[in-house]
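To illustrate the input format used throughout this study, we show a single complete record. The first block contains the structure-token representation of the backbone; no residue identities are included at this stage. The design step must infer an amino acid for every position from geometry alone.
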């Protein structure tokens, strides 16, 4: 199982703060496609507007959206909110 944790408006969009994906391994982009399949505003889960981490390591330090997430890993979705 892969645990997905979402914070802020992302958790609200998913309807829950945590969910589990029953896969032994899957790419980040496929997880995003899976969890947003019924969402009309998929852009709110874009890596351009969301900090995505696997086991505490941001995916930009790994293989970005092609990073493979394995069973036992935790993928975290944190909205990037800032003002100017």
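Output of the design step:
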């Amino acid at each position: 199982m892969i645990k997905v944790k979402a914070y802020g408006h992302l958790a609200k969009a998913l309807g829950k703060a945590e969910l589990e994906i029953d896969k032994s391994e899957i790419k980040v982009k496929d997880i995003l496609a899976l969890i947003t399949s019924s969402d009309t505003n998929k852009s709110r889960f874009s890596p351009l507007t969301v900090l995505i981490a696997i086991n505490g390591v941001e995916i930009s330090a790994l293989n970005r959206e092609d990073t493979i997430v394995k069973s036992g890993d935790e993928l975290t979705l944190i909205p990037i909110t800032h003002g100017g």
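Structural context for interpreting the output: The mean pLDDT is 90. The longest strand covers residues 74-79.
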